[in-house]
Amino acid sequence: METITHNLIAVYIQIFCFQFLLFPFNVIFTIIFAYFSHIIVDAFSILTYHTPDAHKDDKFWLYWHIIIYALSAASIVVFIVPFWLSIISANIMDLWDWFIIRPIQRRKKKKDPESEWKSPLYLHASVDWFRRNLLFWLPRWTYKKGGIVVEIIVILIFSLLVIPYYI
Ligand SMILES: [Zn+2]
Protein backbone atom coordinates (compact mmCIF):
# COMPACT_ATOMS: atom_id res chain seq x y z
CA MET A 1 0.00 0.00 0.00
CA GLU A 2 0.99 3.64 -0.05
CA THR A 3 3.22 5.52 2.40
CA ILE A 4 0.31 7.46 3.91
CA THR A 5 -1.43 4.17 4.78
CA HIS A 6 1.75 2.82 6.42
CA ASN A 7 2.14 6.11 8.31
CA LEU A 8 -1.41 6.29 9.66
CA ILE A 9 -1.23 2.71 10.93
CA ALA A 10 2.21 3.40 12.46
CA VAL A 11 0.93 6.52 14.23
CA TYR A 12 -1.97 4.55 15.67
CA ILE A 13 0.43 1.82 16.85
CA GLN A 14 2.56 4.40 18.68
CA ILE A 15 -0.48 6.04 20.28
CA PHE A 16 -1.72 2.61 21.38
CA CYS A 17 1.65 1.43 22.77
CA PHE A 18 2.34 4.67 24.64
CA GLN A 19 -1.14 4.61 26.12
CA PHE A 20 -1.01 1.08 27.46
CA LEU A 21 2.66 0.22 28.03
CA LEU A 22 5.34 1.63 30.29
CA PHE A 23 8.87 2.55 29.30
CA PRO A 24 10.85 0.81 27.80
CA PHE A 25 8.12 -1.55 26.52
CA ASN A 26 6.21 1.27 24.83
CA VAL A 27 9.28 2.06 22.71
CA ILE A 28 10.23 -1.57 22.04
CA PHE A 29 6.73 -2.64 20.99
CA THR A 30 6.18 0.49 18.90
CA ILE A 31 9.26 -0.48 16.87
CA ILE A 32 8.29 -4.17 16.60
CA PHE A 33 4.60 -3.63 15.79
CA ALA A 34 5.31 -0.80 13.33
CA TYR A 35 7.91 -2.89 11.51
CA PHE A 36 5.61 -5.92 11.24
CA SER A 37 2.66 -3.72 10.25
CA HIS A 38 4.58 -2.95 7.06
CA ILE A 39 4.76 -6.65 6.19
CA ILE A 40 1.05 -7.22 6.81
CA VAL A 41 -0.08 -4.04 5.04
CA ASP A 42 2.14 -4.72 2.02
CA ALA A 43 0.92 -8.31 1.85
CA PHE A 44 -2.69 -7.08 1.71
CA SER A 45 -1.83 -4.52 -0.97
CA ILE A 46 -2.85 -7.04 -3.66
CA LEU A 47 -6.36 -5.86 -2.74
CA THR A 48 -5.47 -2.31 -3.82
CA TYR A 49 -4.70 -0.65 -7.13
CA HIS A 50 -0.93 -1.05 -7.12
CA THR A 51 0.60 -1.55 -10.56
CA PRO A 52 4.24 -2.64 -10.23
CA ASP A 53 5.14 -0.47 -13.21
CA ALA A 54 4.33 3.19 -13.91
CA HIS A 55 1.44 3.92 -16.31
CA LYS A 56 2.10 7.60 -16.87
CA ASP A 57 0.04 7.75 -20.07
CA ASP A 58 -3.03 6.62 -18.14
CA LYS A 59 -4.73 9.71 -16.64
CA PHE A 60 -6.33 7.71 -13.82
CA TRP A 61 -2.99 6.26 -12.77
CA LEU A 62 -1.37 9.69 -12.99
CA TYR A 63 -3.97 11.60 -10.91
CA TRP A 64 -4.24 8.90 -8.29
CA HIS A 65 -0.47 8.88 -7.84
CA ILE A 66 -0.18 12.68 -7.71
CA ILE A 67 -2.84 12.71 -4.97
CA ILE A 68 -1.52 9.76 -2.98
CA TYR A 69 2.12 10.94 -3.15
CA ALA A 70 1.10 14.45 -2.05
CA LEU A 71 -0.91 12.98 0.85
CA SER A 72 2.00 10.69 1.74
CA ALA A 73 4.41 13.63 1.85
CA ALA A 74 1.91 15.65 3.91
CA SER A 75 1.46 12.74 6.34
CA ILE A 76 5.21 12.70 7.00
CA VAL A 77 5.25 16.47 7.68
CA VAL A 78 2.20 16.28 9.95
CA PHE A 79 3.19 13.20 11.95
CA ILE A 80 6.99 13.15 12.12
CA VAL A 81 6.80 15.07 15.43
CA PRO A 82 6.10 13.28 17.73
CA PHE A 83 5.66 9.99 15.81
CA TRP A 84 9.10 9.70 14.19
CA LEU A 85 9.81 6.42 15.98
CA SER A 86 6.85 4.54 14.50
CA ILE A 87 7.07 6.30 11.11
CA ILE A 88 10.72 5.29 10.67
CA SER A 89 10.07 1.74 11.96
CA ALA A 90 7.13 1.30 9.58
CA ASN A 91 9.02 2.58 6.54
CA ILE A 92 12.49 1.19 7.14
CA MET A 93 11.75 -1.78 4.83
CA ASP A 94 10.88 0.48 1.92
CA LEU A 95 13.85 2.79 2.55
CA TRP A 96 16.25 -0.13 2.76
CA ASP A 97 14.92 -2.15 -0.20
CA TRP A 98 14.10 0.70 -2.60
CA PHE A 99 17.04 2.99 -1.91
CA ILE A 100 19.81 0.51 -1.10
CA ILE A 101 19.13 -3.07 -2.25
CA ARG A 102 17.31 -2.38 -5.53
CA PRO A 103 19.85 0.18 -6.83
CA ILE A 104 22.66 -2.27 -6.03
CA GLN A 105 20.78 -4.99 -7.88
CA ARG A 106 20.17 -2.71 -10.85
CA ARG A 107 23.87 -1.94 -11.09
CA LYS A 108 24.69 -5.66 -10.92
CA LYS A 109 22.18 -6.39 -13.68
CA LYS A 110 23.75 -3.75 -15.89
CA LYS A 111 27.15 -5.39 -15.55
CA ASP A 112 25.78 -8.91 -15.89
CA PRO A 113 22.27 -9.17 -17.41
CA GLU A 114 22.20 -12.88 -16.57
CA SER A 115 22.55 -12.30 -12.83
CA GLU A 116 19.58 -13.41 -10.78
CA TRP A 117 17.50 -11.15 -8.53
CA LYS A 118 18.19 -12.84 -5.27
CA SER A 119 19.42 -10.88 -2.28
CA PRO A 120 19.24 -12.32 1.24
CA LEU A 121 19.09 -8.69 2.39
CA TYR A 122 15.90 -7.96 0.45
CA LEU A 123 13.43 -7.39 3.31
CA HIS A 124 10.27 -7.55 1.20
CA ALA A 125 10.92 -11.29 0.78
CA SER A 126 9.02 -11.60 4.09
CA VAL A 127 6.02 -9.87 2.46
CA ASP A 128 6.10 -12.35 -0.42
CA TRP A 129 6.31 -15.23 2.07
CA PHE A 130 3.36 -13.92 4.10
CA ARG A 131 1.27 -13.43 0.96
CA ARG A 132 2.16 -16.81 -0.54
CA ASN A 133 1.47 -18.81 2.59
CA LEU A 134 -1.34 -16.97 4.33
CA LEU A 135 -3.10 -14.75 1.79
CA PHE A 136 -3.08 -16.94 -1.32
CA TRP A 137 -6.91 -17.04 -1.20
CA LEU A 138 -7.25 -13.29 -1.73
CA PRO A 139 -8.20 -11.89 -5.14
CA ARG A 140 -5.54 -9.86 -6.92
CA TRP A 141 -6.76 -6.35 -7.71
CA THR A 142 -3.41 -4.69 -8.34
CA TYR A 143 -4.52 -3.66 -11.84
CA LYS A 144 -8.15 -2.97 -10.89
CA LYS A 145 -8.80 0.76 -10.60
CA GLY A 146 -11.56 0.10 -8.07
CA GLY A 147 -8.80 -1.12 -5.75
CA ILE A 148 -8.26 2.49 -4.69
CA VAL A 149 -11.53 2.19 -2.75
CA VAL A 150 -9.92 -0.41 -0.45
CA GLU A 151 -6.95 1.88 0.17
CA ILE A 152 -9.20 4.90 0.76
CA ILE A 153 -11.31 2.94 3.29
CA VAL A 154 -8.19 1.90 5.24
CA ILE A 155 -6.93 5.51 5.17
CA LEU A 156 -10.30 6.79 6.45
CA ILE A 157 -10.54 4.19 9.24
CA PHE A 158 -7.08 4.99 10.60
CA SER A 159 -7.59 8.76 10.16
CA LEU A 160 -10.68 8.46 12.35
CA LEU A 161 -8.73 6.46 14.94
CA VAL A 162 -5.90 9.00 15.02
CA ILE A 163 -7.99 12.21 15.02
CA PRO A 164 -9.07 11.93 18.71
CA TYR A 165 -5.41 12.20 19.66
CA TYR A 166 -5.32 15.67 18.08
CA ILE A 167 -8.54 17.10 19.62
ZN1 LIG B 1 6.87 -1.97 1.26
Describe the fold and architecture.
The structure is a single chain. The chain is mainly α and 167 residues long. It has a domain of 116 residues. Helices cover 72% and strands 0% of the residues. The chain has 5 helices and no strands. The longest helix is centred in the middle third of the chain and has 53 residues. It is globular and about 55 Å long. The site of zinc ion (ZN) has 5 residues, from α2 and α3.
Quick take:
The chain has helices spanning 3-20, 25-43, 59-111, 125-134, 147-166. The chain is an all-alpha fold and 167 residues long.
Task: Give the topology.
Layout: H1 3-20, H2 25-43, H3 59-111, H4 125-134, H5 147-166
Bound molecules: zinc ion (ZN).
Zinc ion is lined by residues 38, 42, 93-94, 124.
- Bound small-molecule species: zinc ion
Average pLDDT across residues? 94
Residue stretches low in confidence (pLDDT < 50, at least 5 long) are none
Could you say which overall geometry the principal axes of the C-alpha atoms support? Answer: globular
List key phrases describing it.
5 helices; mainly alpha; 72% helix; 167 residues; binds zinc ion
